[in-house]
Design a protein that fits this description.
The protein is α+β, with helices and mostly antiparallel strands. It folds into 3 domains: 88 residues, Ribosomal Protein S5, domain 2, CATH 3.30.230; 42 residues; 138 residues, Butyryl-CoA Dehydrogenase, subunit A, domain 3. Helices cover 62% and strands 15% of the residues. The chain has a 4-stranded mixed sheet, with helices on one face. It has a two-stranded antiparallel ribbon with strand order 5-6. α1 packs parallel to α4, α4 runs antiparallel to α9 and α8 packs antiparallel against α9. The longest helix has 48 residues.
Amino acid sequence: MIYSMTGYASVMREVGATALNIELRSVNHRYLDVQFRIPEELRPFEAGLREMLVARVQRGKLECRIGLNPISGAQKNFELNLETLRQLRALSEQLRLAWPSVTGLTAADILQWPGVLGMETLSADELRNVCLDALRTALDEFTAARAREGERLKELLLERVATMEKLVMAVMPRMPQVIVAFRDKLATRLREAMATSDDERVRQEITLFANRIDVDEELSRLTAHIGEVKRVLAVGGAAGKRLDFLMQELNREANTLASKSADIEITNIALELKLLIEQMREQIQNVE
């Protein structure tokens, strides 16, 4: 499977009266760069969350956003903060001893005292488990989205590879025609210049010309590199760096083919190859 470095996923979990939201989004990057944007109360879990992300993603600039927001209209379960209540009682007793005429606190006063009533909260272990489970689900969706995009990229690359194969196959039959055309042109020029036919001189010039424009090696390398691109795409995995290297090699051979060209049709084929390689290189920048 080929994976794109571009992806997005979002998951929400209800934690009591609070919604835990996880967003994963990524773009292409040379290496793996993981960034977190999370509330301070979740910072102790960051190492475990990062470990889970690194195990599933190999390249890309990945941003993980986690939010904790109250759910509008949700039933809220309150509980007494016994420690705050104990401290308030001790202070109240000290105040009555120091100032007996002061009236005591009513139940309403106590309940309205800051910190006496608190919302029911999850333990650290429970909150960690919720975060990890939500991130696991988000990663599954994120990976599936990257796989779908990667499959589209693979199809585009294979289409261009097929076109390149046809272009390379079209070059070889042109070479004998180019040499014959050069021989006829050279023989005509020699006869015009020397008023005679020097077959030996013509043969020497044709041999030099044929050696100069010989592109068998370039065509063999182009064919080999194209085959390797197809193999890498079939194997899948983290193929982006290898594909990028192959694009450099293909471009080098296409440049050499263009420089050796002595025929307008071969020149056009070389330019078309370079265009296809550049289009593939741009797409490969998104492959993991």
